[in-house]
Specification:
The protein is mainly beta and 149 residues long. It has 1 helix and 9 strands; from the N terminus they run αβββββββββ.
């Protein structure tokens, strides 16, 4: 099951890469809970899909996969004339452990995209509701960086 889920996730990532225009596809890292590799594909000016293959360090220390649909409010606020964006979304998470967990995610975050480089710096908080094998509420958070090409 774990190999199948990872394979499907990788196909999702690379199909986005094949369809992406210039600077629509980003790859990078996220530090926090979980920590790992993150990808993002902008499918329009204000919406995107993101995902991660990561390692969870809390509770059951195991492989974590997630995929989200995100809506962005571009230039929502500025700090020293630098525009920051807000985003929110909905997604799914699977965490492989003794009892494989499946749940929903609601990512809430902010990001900064410098005009001088194809980068995105982001910070997010994610309430999680595990649904399988039992109901459990968790809170994840992360700080990350993606490079776009």
């Amino acid at each position: 099951m774990k190999r199948t889920a990872v394979l499907i996730f990788l196909l999702f990532i690379f199909s986005g890469l094949l369809a992406a225009g210039p600077y629509d596809f980003g790859i990078g890292f996220v530090l926090g809970e979980p920590t790992g590799v993150t990808v993002k594909y902008w499918n329009s000016e204000k919406s995107a899909f993101d995902g991660a293959i990561a390692w969870s360090f809390s509770g059951e220390k195991k492989l974590h996969l997630h995929a989200d649909y995100l809506v962005h409010s571009l230039n929502a606020y500025t700090i020293d004339k630098a525009p920051f964006h807000l985003y929110y979304g909905i997604g799914v998470r699977i965490k492989f452990s003794d009892k494989t967990r499946l749940g929903s995610r609601i990512p809430l975050g902010t990001s900064y995209t410098p005009t001088s480089a194809p980068l995105e710096i982001f910070c997010e908080v994610i309430p999680l509701l595990d649904l399988v094998p039992d109901t459990d509420f968790q809170l994840n958070a992360g700080l990350g960086l993606r490079y776009y090409f």
